[in-house]
Design goal:
The protein is mostly helical. It is built from four helices and no strands. It has helices at residues 23-36, 40-48, 59-79, 87-105.
Length: 106
């Protein structure tokens, strides 16, 4: 039998919470998690508890930002001049901008 493993605050987390989402919602959650630098579990718990998500720079975050900027660039190229930018892309651009702005001020 394995020993009990507690989190950093000494809490024993042995319960599972699951819910269904659409493909689009799943991708948005994954994007936000990657750009936060947190684990998916920690990100969702903090959001549900209305806690601030503080992004801390790391090589993992840098890689996620770089990949997200590449995806944004490719999507904007695909849309071209006069095309309409989707609501999801606008939200992603706002999120990435906010992260870069926060990094600049630190």
């Amino acid at each position: 039998m394995s020993s009990r493993s507690c989190d950093r605050r000494g809490r024993w987390r042995n319960l599972t919470v699951a819910f269904r989402v659409s493909q689009e919602e799943r991708e948005e959650i994954r994007t936000r998690v990657k750009l936060s630098g947190l684990t998916q579990q920690e990100y969702i718990i903090r959001r549900l508890q209305a806690q601030d998500i503080v992004v801390v720079g790391s090589p993992r975050l840098h890689k996620a930002l770089k990949e997200q900027m590449r995806q944004i660039f490719l999507e904007l190229q695909r849309i071209g001049k006069g095309g309409e930018v989707s609501q999801e892309l606008q939200e992603t651009i706002r999120l990435v901008s906010k992260i870069y702005d926060g990094m600049k001020s630190n």
